[in-house]
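Because discrete structure vocabularies remain unfamiliar, we first show an illustrative case, written as a sequence plus integers encoding its fold.
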Amino acid sequence: MLLLTITGTAIAGVRQDKKIEELRQLRAIQSTEIARYDSMNPREFEHAIAFLCERDGCRQVSVVGGAGDLGADVVATAPDGRRIVIQCKRYGPTTKVGSPDLQRFGGTCYSVHGAQVAAVVTTSVFTQPATQYGSQHGIRLIDQAALAAWATRTGPAPWML
């Protein structure tokens, strides 16, 4: 009985060690993804987000960002047919996406661009007021961690939230 208990404990310890190592490897991969996005310029970042949309089954994916884009950087049709409008914010680690950014996007994503799914994707994080605004207005917020998870296929795409 004692041998069985010791063996069971050892097996549980090995499983725990394996899970810890897998988590460590996943975090390293995700950190690499974020570093890759951080090294891009804003236009390259928009194209990278468009690529993720295409990779995950979207159709009619277009990068429309630039002067006069009225807040839309990527538009696409989700696998289920909904129109997705994404604003990309490739910010540095000390710059947060604030409520004014969300308000500008919120003013056009539905009425001008006809979004059925509206999302803001950033290499940074959102302020609390931005998070509240997004929640109140149905804008999906994809921060650095959620972007890393989406990019590594360990988290959902914005239209799946």
Summary: Residues 44 and 150 are 17 Å apart (CA to CA). The mean pLDDT is 88. The two ends are 48 Å apart (CA to CA). DSSP finds five helices and five strands in the chain.
